[in-house]
Request: fold
Amino acid sequence: MKTTSFLSTVCSGTVAAVVLIAFTAHSGEAPAPRPTSNTIPKSIYVPPSTRSEGRDPFFPNRFATAPTPTPVQTTGVVLVLNGISGTPQNPFAIINNRTFAKGEEQEVPSSAGRVLVRCVDIKENTVIVDVDGQRQELRLRSGI
Reply:
Protein backbone atom coordinates (compact mmCIF):
# COMPACT_ATOMS: atom_id res chain seq x y z
CA MET A 1 0.00 0.00 0.00
CA LYS A 2 1.26 3.40 -0.97
CA THR A 3 1.21 6.30 1.49
CA THR A 4 0.71 9.86 0.32
CA SER A 5 1.34 12.79 2.49
CA PHE A 6 -1.24 15.46 2.97
CA LEU A 7 1.10 18.13 1.58
CA SER A 8 1.67 16.38 -1.73
CA THR A 9 -2.08 15.90 -2.17
CA VAL A 10 -2.79 19.58 -1.54
CA CYS A 11 0.02 20.72 -3.83
CA SER A 12 -1.09 18.51 -6.70
CA GLY A 13 -4.66 19.70 -6.23
CA THR A 14 -3.53 23.34 -6.21
CA VAL A 15 -1.55 22.92 -9.41
CA ALA A 16 -4.53 21.33 -11.10
CA ALA A 17 -6.79 24.17 -9.96
CA VAL A 18 -4.38 26.82 -11.26
CA VAL A 19 -4.12 25.09 -14.64
CA LEU A 20 -7.89 24.77 -14.83
CA ILE A 21 -8.44 28.46 -13.96
CA ALA A 22 -5.80 29.60 -16.45
CA PHE A 23 -7.32 27.44 -19.17
CA THR A 24 -10.87 28.69 -18.59
CA ALA A 25 -9.83 32.35 -18.19
CA HIS A 26 -8.23 32.40 -21.62
CA SER A 27 -11.19 31.70 -23.85
CA GLY A 28 -9.66 33.24 -26.97
CA GLU A 29 -11.48 36.61 -26.69
CA ALA A 30 -9.57 39.87 -26.70
CA PRO A 31 -9.52 41.71 -23.39
CA ALA A 32 -11.88 44.67 -23.02
CA PRO A 33 -10.27 47.94 -24.23
CA ARG A 34 -9.18 50.39 -21.60
CA PRO A 35 -10.33 53.98 -21.79
CA THR A 36 -7.72 56.07 -23.62
CA SER A 37 -8.67 59.44 -22.16
CA ASN A 38 -6.84 60.30 -18.99
CA THR A 39 -8.05 63.88 -18.80
CA ILE A 40 -8.82 65.25 -15.39
CA PRO A 41 -11.79 67.61 -15.25
CA LYS A 42 -10.82 71.17 -14.41
CA SER A 43 -12.37 72.62 -11.30
CA ILE A 44 -13.73 76.13 -11.75
CA TYR A 45 -14.75 78.18 -8.75
CA VAL A 46 -16.89 81.25 -9.26
CA PRO A 47 -17.21 83.24 -6.05
CA PRO A 48 -20.78 84.22 -5.14
CA SER A 49 -21.69 87.86 -5.66
CA THR A 50 -24.73 87.88 -3.34
CA ARG A 51 -25.70 85.99 -0.22
CA SER A 52 -28.52 84.23 -2.12
CA GLU A 53 -25.97 82.63 -4.50
CA GLY A 54 -24.18 80.97 -1.61
CA ARG A 55 -21.11 81.63 0.48
CA ASP A 56 -17.43 80.91 0.40
CA PRO A 57 -16.68 78.39 3.18
CA PHE A 58 -13.29 79.97 3.88
CA PHE A 59 -14.42 83.62 3.69
CA PRO A 60 -18.16 83.55 4.50
CA ASN A 61 -18.59 87.34 4.71
CA ARG A 62 -16.74 88.21 1.49
CA PHE A 63 -18.59 88.46 -1.83
CA ALA A 64 -17.21 88.96 -5.32
CA THR A 65 -17.36 92.45 -6.72
CA ALA A 66 -16.82 93.45 -10.31
CA PRO A 67 -13.57 95.37 -10.81
CA THR A 68 -14.03 98.99 -11.74
CA PRO A 69 -12.37 99.81 -15.07
CA THR A 70 -9.84 102.61 -15.09
CA PRO A 71 -10.55 105.14 -17.81
CA VAL A 72 -7.78 105.73 -20.32
CA GLN A 73 -7.46 109.34 -21.36
CA THR A 74 -5.43 110.29 -24.38
CA THR A 75 -6.46 113.94 -24.22
CA GLY A 76 -3.72 114.62 -21.67
CA VAL A 77 -0.99 113.66 -24.14
CA VAL A 78 1.36 116.56 -24.76
CA LEU A 79 3.28 116.29 -28.03
CA VAL A 80 5.79 118.92 -29.06
CA LEU A 81 6.91 119.49 -32.64
CA ASN A 82 10.62 120.11 -32.10
CA GLY A 83 11.45 120.76 -35.74
CA ILE A 84 11.02 119.94 -39.43
CA SER A 85 13.99 118.91 -41.54
CA GLY A 86 14.85 117.16 -44.77
CA THR A 87 14.00 118.23 -48.30
CA PRO A 88 10.62 119.43 -49.58
CA GLN A 89 10.26 116.10 -51.44
CA ASN A 90 11.28 114.01 -48.39
CA PRO A 91 10.54 115.94 -45.17
CA PHE A 92 11.10 114.72 -41.62
CA ALA A 93 9.34 115.84 -38.44
CA ILE A 94 10.90 115.72 -34.98
CA ILE A 95 8.18 115.07 -32.38
CA ASN A 96 9.17 114.74 -28.71
CA ASN A 97 12.76 114.17 -29.86
CA ARG A 98 11.77 111.30 -32.22
CA THR A 99 12.22 111.60 -35.99
CA PHE A 100 9.26 110.71 -38.23
CA ALA A 101 8.85 110.41 -41.99
CA LYS A 102 5.43 110.73 -43.60
CA GLY A 103 3.39 107.55 -42.85
CA GLU A 104 5.77 106.32 -40.13
CA GLU A 105 4.46 105.02 -36.80
CA GLN A 106 6.30 104.59 -33.49
CA GLU A 107 5.92 104.88 -29.73
CA VAL A 108 6.80 108.26 -28.25
CA PRO A 109 7.37 109.17 -24.59
CA SER A 110 4.93 111.86 -23.44
CA SER A 111 3.51 113.39 -20.29
CA ALA A 112 0.87 110.61 -20.17
CA GLY A 113 3.37 107.77 -20.72
CA ARG A 114 4.33 106.06 -23.98
CA VAL A 115 1.80 106.63 -26.78
CA LEU A 116 1.59 105.32 -30.33
CA VAL A 117 2.00 108.17 -32.84
CA ARG A 118 1.57 107.93 -36.62
CA CYS A 119 2.72 110.80 -38.80
CA VAL A 120 0.00 111.46 -41.40
CA ASP A 121 1.34 114.52 -43.20
CA ILE A 122 4.26 116.96 -42.93
CA LYS A 123 3.77 120.54 -44.19
CA GLU A 124 5.99 123.62 -44.02
CA ASN A 125 5.17 124.63 -40.41
CA THR A 126 2.72 121.95 -39.25
CA VAL A 127 2.53 118.19 -38.85
CA ILE A 128 -0.66 116.12 -38.72
CA VAL A 129 -0.47 113.04 -36.48
CA ASP A 130 -2.75 110.29 -35.20
CA VAL A 131 -2.34 109.70 -31.46
CA ASP A 132 -4.09 106.49 -30.37
CA GLY A 133 -6.73 107.01 -33.05
CA GLN A 134 -7.21 110.76 -32.48
CA ARG A 135 -5.97 113.23 -35.10
CA GLN A 136 -3.93 116.24 -33.95
CA GLU A 137 -2.19 119.07 -35.72
CA LEU A 138 1.16 120.14 -34.28
CA ARG A 139 2.61 123.58 -35.08
CA LEU A 140 6.16 124.83 -34.85
CA ARG A 141 6.71 127.42 -32.16
CA SER A 142 7.27 130.89 -33.52
CA GLY A 143 10.92 131.82 -33.84
CA ILE A 144 12.13 128.35 -34.78
